[in-house]
């Protein structure tokens, strides 16, 4: 197993998580009051450089639809969005809305978990042994009132910068374009993908990296199945040092859980999350639709673009829906 090759005992996640957390910790790097972690790496100059990457003006949404046909199955009360109309055209035609001089309108409401479709994980989403980002006590960060310290609203104006697509599905499985469930993407895989795609896919400080595995392509073709929470390709636990060394600002994948599932330890649940969110301060995106972007990048042999992916400014939230836009 990859974990064994890296010197970790797959039967001892506690030791591996602790050792890796120490190796990649960013606690204190941006001060004791920091609330946004690696998003500090996207500064004004980085955004200006990213804006200069726009060549054709083509705009590609990387979001799944927010509707009742989504992937969620109710795990931990995560449901698909429920969209309800409050006022309709038939109400307007019937003249029952109470407006003067013939004006009518439509209005609606949506109810959904904040992480039911394309989304960002905030820094208050995952803890390690009761510790939150930057070494704070989890209970001092997130209470029944929400995340009062690292709430997603702190990132509302920050996630605009250079985006880089790493199409691991196409690179490692050129015929199918899809990695099989359970495939653990290694640091060597990431490096070989960058080398194959060329210099526009070089990953560096402040970049927003999107990793396509092809699992979403398969789910759309074959049905959702166990896409939400089941087996999936994803990043290996052993990539944590790679992510840290490159000083990326954020990373997203086309899978439900970002990291490989089943996880590489026995037993385990999302050990890479347990390291990179509370210790590295890394913002993670999940369930991003990268297929159209992958086609465009392959056609042009350019894998860098301006990424605009602001979370909703939901006070105290530990995650947020997002409609990421890649501008080519």
Give the arrangement of secondary structure elements:
Blueprint: H1 2-5, H2 13-24, H3 44-51, E1 59-61, E2 82-87, H4 89-94, E3 107-111, E4 119-121, H5 138-141, E5 142-143, E6 146-147, E7 160-167, H6 168-172, E8 184-185, H7 187-197, E9 208-212, H8 215-222, E10 234-235, H9 240-245, E11 250-253, H10 271-280, E12 283-286, H11 291-300, E13 304-308, E14 319-321, E15 325-327
Parallel strand pairs: 7-9, 8-10, 9-11, 11-12
Antiparallel strand pairs: 1-15, 2-3, 4-12, 4-14, 5-6, 7-13, 13-15
Helix pairs in contact: 2-10
Protein name: Cyclase family protein
Keywords: Hydrolase
GO molecular function: arylformamidase activity
Walk me through what this model shows.
Strand 11, helix 10 and strand 12 (283-286) form a beta-alpha-beta unit. The strands form 4 sheets. This protein has a 9-stranded mixed β-sheet with strand order 1-15-13-7-9-11-12-4-14, with helices on both faces. Strands 2-3 form a two-stranded antiparallel ribbon. By secondary structure, the chain is of the alpha/beta class. The chain has helices at residues 2-5, 13-24, 44-51, 89-94, 138-141, 168-172, 187-197, 215-222, 240-245, 271-280, 291-300, and strands at residues 59-61, 82-87, 107-111, 119-121, 142-143, 146-147, 160-167, 184-185, 208-212, 234-235, 250-253, 283-286, 304-308, 319-321, 325-327. The protein is globular and about 75 Å long. The chain has 2 domains: 2-75 and 113-327, 3-Layer(bba) Sandwich (Glucose Oxidase, domain 1); 83-111, no CATH class. The protein has 11 helices and 15 strands.
């Amino acid at each position: 197993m990859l974990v064994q090759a890296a010197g970790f005992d797959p039967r001892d996640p506690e030791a591996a998580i602790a050792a890796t957390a120490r190796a990649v910790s960013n606690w204190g790097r941006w001060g004791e009051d920091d609330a946004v972690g690696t998003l500090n790496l996207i500064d004004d100059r980085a955004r200006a450089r990213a804006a200069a990457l726009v060549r054709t003006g083509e705009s590609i949404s990387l979001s799944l639809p927010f509707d009742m046909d989504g992937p969620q199955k109710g795990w931990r009360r995560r449901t698909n969005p429920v969209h309800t109309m409050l006022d309709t055209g038939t109400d307007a035609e019937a003249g029952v809305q109470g407006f003067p001089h013939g004006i009518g309108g439509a209005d609606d409401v949506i109810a959904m978990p904040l992480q039911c479709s394309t989304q960002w994980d905030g820094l208050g989403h995952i803890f390690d042994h009761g510790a939150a980002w930057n070494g704070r006590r989890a209970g001092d960060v997130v209470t029944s009132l929400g995340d009062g310290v690292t709430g997603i609203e702190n990132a509302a104006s920050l996630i605009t910068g250079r985006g880089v697509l790493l199409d691991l599905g196409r690179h490692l499985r050129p015929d199918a374009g899809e990695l099989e469930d359970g495939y653990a993407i290694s640091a060597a895989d990431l490096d070989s993908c960058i080398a194959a795609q060329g210099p526009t896919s070089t990953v560096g400080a402040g970049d927003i990296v999107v990793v396509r595995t092809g699992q979403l392509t398969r789910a759309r073709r074959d049905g959702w199945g166990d896409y939400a929470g089941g087996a999936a390709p994803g990043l290996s636990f052993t990539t944590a040092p790679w992510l840290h060394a490159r000083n990326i600002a954020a990373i997203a994948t086309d899978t439900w859980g970002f990291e490989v599932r089943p996880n590489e330890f026995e037993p385990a649940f999302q050990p890479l999350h347990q390291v990179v969110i509370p210790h590295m301060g890394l913002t993670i995106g999940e369930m991003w639709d990268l297929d159209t972007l992958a086609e465009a990048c392959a056609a042009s042999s350019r894998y860098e673009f301006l990424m605009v992916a602001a979370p909703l400014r939901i006070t105290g939230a530990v995650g947020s829906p997002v409609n990421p836009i890649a501008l080519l």
